[in-house]
Amino acid sequence: MIALNRAVAHGYAYGPGVGLVLLDAVRAGGGLDGYPLAAAVEADLVARRGDRRRAAALFREAAAMVDSTAERRALLECSAELAP
Q: Burial of 36 by CB count in 10 Å (0-12 exposed, 13-18 middle, 19+ buried)?
């Protein structure tokens, strides 16, 4: 979790590309596989980098992983805002 938060912070401080590099390093070990927040973080960073289509797909992926209806709805709304 600390490394995921670091990727988010660096993504805001130094740009989404830096955050994505750190996120890739965190995910390399497989410890965040199936973790919806990791997919949502990636979606946000990808959206901020400008790839709206990929970000929308990642938000949908994150939504499919959550049990909470409210979380799913919020993630799907993020996806819909980015969809062309």
A: buried
Longest dimension (CA), the chain: 34
Burial track 52-64 (b if 16+ CB lie within 10 A, e otherwise): eeebbbbbbbbbe
User: What is the pTM (predicted TM-score) of this model?
Assistant: 0.91
pLDDT digits (tens, 9 = 90+) for 8-63: 999 999 999 999 999 999 999 888 888 999 999 999 999 999 999 999 999 999 99
Give the three-class secondary structure for 34. coil
Q: How many CB atoms lie within 10 A of CB 72?
A: 17
With the C-alpha atoms ordered 4, 84, 53, 68, is the resulting torsion angle positive or negative? positive
